[in-house]
Amino acid sequence: MANLPFFWQSVVVILTAGGLIYLLTLGISIYFSKASDVHDVSWDETLEEGTNPAPAWWFWLGISAAIFAIIYMIFYPSFGNYKGLLGSSNVKEYVKHKENIDDEYYKELDMLKRSDMVALQFNADAMKLASNTFAQYCASCHTDSAEGQMNFPNLMDNAWIWGGSVEQITQTITHGRKAIMPSWGPVLGEEGVNKVANYVKSIADNTYVKGQHVAGKAKFQQFCIACHGANLQGNPIVGAPNLGDSAWIYGGDLDSIKTTITKGRNGVMPAHKNRLTPLQIKLLTAWLSRNN
């Protein structure tokens, strides 16, 4: 204890000293008591409660503990503001050990900050930190395995909607993304939606037949090519996904594709610049770009 008012310091001293004296007196008086060995109290008719003293080892153990407590209180803080003969302080010990821990901690942080992406990717401790950060901040949407789920992309493949370079991933994590797929139902009509959906799916499944899908291709080139490209390869600048692979965020079956075309989609990746430190973002980027 430290910096106690005089009243509370007195209370601590009195209670501590009084408690020790009482316990010593009680223990000695019980051990050396000459009272009768048997009381009138009986249990279960034949079991009688006696007053035999505790075993000698138990008594001397208690006395030793009391003596140790007294010696300890002489040398270390115990009586209110009394700091002990050794002048020990828990605060000083805490500050000393914290300085040592902080020194090692910040040395490690500095090393990670100066490391390039390749070095971080081969640093098991760095990748463990990144994995823990992902589990805390990202797994709720992208799942623990980072393989995504309906409405949230898989981050373990190479189908990066906004680009998979170190700079692009860093940008995505730091500032977030917002993608808008407009609804084309009113423009294309039900028949047009069906044709475009069938054409897109045929490209993704590699089942394109010119005579069967040519009308859908024409509609696609008229309304969709600006964002998704002539070869359906997508455009990471505007967040338009590649439609020629199997990496579907909102479902790749025909009905899901029709729904996407008809009603549109709005995808939002929140910015994490105020949630994560620059080092955490760097570690996450290294962890996510390992497969690139």
Automatic annotation (TrEMBL):
Compartmental location: Cell inner membrane
Keyword match Electron transport: yes
Protein name, entry field: Cbb3-type cytochrome c oxidase subunit
Quaternary state and interactors: Component of the cbb3-type cytochrome c oxidase.
Top-level taxon of origin: Bacteria
Annotated cofactor note: Binds 2 heme C groups per subunit.
Family (UniProt): Belongs to the CcoP / FixP family.
Single Gene Ontology BP annotation: oxidative phosphorylation
Residues the record lists as binding heme c 1: 138, 141-142, 269
Principal location class: membrane
Any one annotated GO CC term: plasma membrane
Amino acids binding heme c 2: 181, 224, 227-228
CC cofactor: heme c
Molecular function terms, GO-annotated: electron transfer activity; heme binding; metal ion binding; oxidoreductase activity
SUPFAM superfamilies hit by this protein: Cytochrome c
Keywords on record: Cell inner membrane, Cell membrane, Electron transport, Heme, Hydrogen ion transport, Ion transport, Iron, Membrane, Metal-binding, Oxidoreductase, Repeat, Respiratory chain, Transmembrane, Transmembrane helix, Transport
Reported function: C-type cytochrome. Part of the cbb3-type cytochrome c oxidase complex.
Name of the gene this protein is made from: ccoP
Boundaries of every Cytochrome c domain copy: 125-204, 211-292
Coiled-coil region(s): none
A Pfam match: FixP_N
Regions crossing the membrane: 12-32, 57-76
Pathway linked to the protein: Energy metabolism; oxidative phosphorylation
